[in-house]
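Quick one - inputs below.
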Amino acid sequence: MAVYEHLYGAYEGESQTAWSRFLVIPRYALRETFKSKLFTTVFILCFIYPLIAAILVYLRHNANALALLQIDVVELLPVDASFFRFFVWLQTSFAFILTVIVGPPLISRDLANNALPLYLSRPLSRTEYVLGKMAVLGFMLSLVTWVPGLLIFFFQASLAGVGWLWTNLWMIWAIFLGSMVWIILLSLLVLAISSLVKWRVVASGALLGLFFVTGAFGEIVNQIVLTRLGHLISLSAAMNSIVLGLFGLFERQTGRVTGRITNPIYDGQMVDIVLLEPPLWVSWLMVAAVCGVCVWLLSRKMRASEVIKSRHPRRSR
Amino acid sequence: MFGKRPILRSLDGVLKGRAIGLLGPNGAGKTTLIHTLLGFHPPTSGTARIFGRDISTNAKQVRAGIGYMPESDSFIAKMSCVHFVRLMAELSGIPARHALERAHEALFYVGLGEARYRPIDSYSLGMKQLAKLAQAIVHGPKLIILDEPTNGLDPPTRSRMISLIRQIRDGGRARILLSSHLLRDVEECCDEILVLKDGCIAANCDLEEERKANRKFIELETRGGNRPAFAEAVGGLGCEYALSGERRMKLIMQDSVEIGDLYRLALEHGIQIRRLNFKRDSLEDIFLKAMENGNGRANDGGL
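Output:
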């Protein structure tokens, strides 16, 4: 089928391997995404803290530079589990902002333009389609979370020596898994919302609401009832606990209230309450349940054609 | 099956034509049949084979050899047409370096060469239909499924679309399954038809064979003479006949009877033959017959 011949012809050349076809989706989506100035700006901003962290690590191990800048080594942040936990927390917060910008139109645009029959009439399964869309976020969010995290980890290891590396080798897993749990949760959530809501603004609002409204509501419950069980309805709190757990920093008891409380529930009684966070496994369970619901929603919505169920089935003649 | 309601039932047949027309009234199950063949709806029982491959167990391999043009507007937003067609080619398995070339070729082939860098959102309805055709053929499939390809097209664009379909059919490199409720489109493009009614096959026939067979039907318009005697004489030659009105007569010729025999008998009975038509059963007749026959099959047609 040459342009000048204007004839229909079959394709007889080589083919891509079947397993890699779904990667075509993120390649095209990423090209479109980087056309957005807002996204590109935020994406660049995401690398500021990794740069600062790398500079801090470098200064810590460079006596000449420290002497020149007249900085006391002790004053510098220790490069330990807390350092990397903070890194993961900050970078996943940026990842959240990127998800709010990029995620909502990923599926909704295809649904609005009825593009699913086009995708699914190709040798591409529904799972591969969703994986392709997830890969868009997975690739982008990885670049701002665990990839710079591990680069800084190995930078620190190269400066601190093999002893430090062996002692802290477990942190590779914590940085990677902590980031990946965030990435998977955010990707599934935003794709599920995108498959339900056609309007980008509403979808972004829904994602923000899921984290901030549930978080705020959980805190209100905590304050009123004097408990930490409000975190059971807060996705951000659950994720925070998981990341703390991975870095070995999770503390069950995060408060204690003693004395006469002017609280409508306790009404001036003398109380002594130990504030215990929900167990770590509850946070894992909660995140797994949310991911499960998202997968279920996606499996319901990702269909090439809409199935309209009639309440009054037609009688067969 | 949609919910608990079966849409397609007792479908059993072999389709062999180069271009197969899928006909049926609205709600007959045409689009559902296409969607089932593409694996969008898994059949509750039974299966189908396309080029010898089972659609349930080899869905991906089957789809790799199919180009599908959906009925409704389907495209990917914020993309130029050439990128859209290229994406579709890559999803079908063509490597990126060849996909762009194929996309350009397909768009020139359907007549959108000059407009290929424009976003599809800005296309007219006719151009969108042609873009959908381009994405369906870009990977050179062996089977092209076209669902109402001429819907909403103005006459020149429709005729362009029909001519493209006929060109592809005559090229012999791809088979075509054309679903339409426009009998004229099917008649112009297809050599075999499958008529669906209420999810069942109402008719399945080879149009070419049907046309050949229909050459034996003759309609006469006569004047004067003794019509009943003439009719009996024609019957005496072994032809079945039917008189309609005062002047018309329909008959089915036997192989041994020539037209000259009719003129000879007419002369003998003082009949003037004012008009003699080889009455062809049009697709409309076949379709209407199939609809009248309820869920049964209009003819055996190879099923």
